[in-house]
TrEMBL record:
Belongs to the UPF0162 family. Residues 54-199 form the Protein SirB1 N-terminal domain. This is Transglutaminase-like domain-containing protein. Signal peptide: none annotated. Coiled coil: none annotated. Pfam families: TPR_9, Transglut_core2.
Amino acid sequence: MRPLHPPGPERSAEWRRRFGDEARAERPDLSALCLLVGAQADGELDEAGLDAAQIELDRLAGELPFRPGGPRSWATALAEHLGDRCGFRGTPGDYQRLDSSLLHEVLRRRRGLPILLSVVWMEVARRAGAPVYGVALPGHFVVGFGPPEQQVLVDPFDGGRVLTGPDAELLVAGATGAPLDPSMLSPADPLDVVLRILNNIRAWAAARPERSDVALWAVELSLLLPSHPARLRYDRAQLLVERGDFLTGALELDAYAEVVAAVDEPAADRVRRQARAARAMLN
């Protein structure tokens, strides 16, 4: 695995500005947002690299047959092209790699997490004119084709295998222990997809305390999304304290306490105590 080093402060600030602008666009571009996430992780990814990744998605779409038919025909065409011919799929080892969450690296390696492989499927299919969208099943992201009454689900992690109803039920039951709810099959919003990707990156970093830098930029990108959980501010504050920026972390904790106080004053008091403890570490 090629070691990934983040960009310098100026380049990082520029990528974040562009990420925030794209996230607030009327129609956010999923591939652009995913590539900007990659740019935060990989200092070697430059403007030419971003363009090359978009060109690769265009190329893959151009190799698909022209409008092959209904949802199942589209699903089959994508599986044959991306899964069989191009070799896009996942393995258990991909869960241990940061580059499995970075679109430019997934395009290069043709390996990745279910959600990133789904992004490849969606972006290639969308460019080819398919009725495609992401489906955020608990614990395993998949891709849907067609309207609800004709919906066909595929699993890009398994090379684009078409899922039967029982297959989807088993995926949900395995992740949650609960039955599949029809609401789980609704199209995922692009910004929710990006937030889920960033949550995956944070989970990867949480298992590696030496990579708190990755956790920090992932939570800071999450905070740039127009809609995000308020608790992310608390998570950022904790990371700052862990990384030795006690004053900024304390200020963030105080700010979060003010938000929480409106609904849970005892919780706000606990956060304020954490802020005092962080300041005490300056002495």
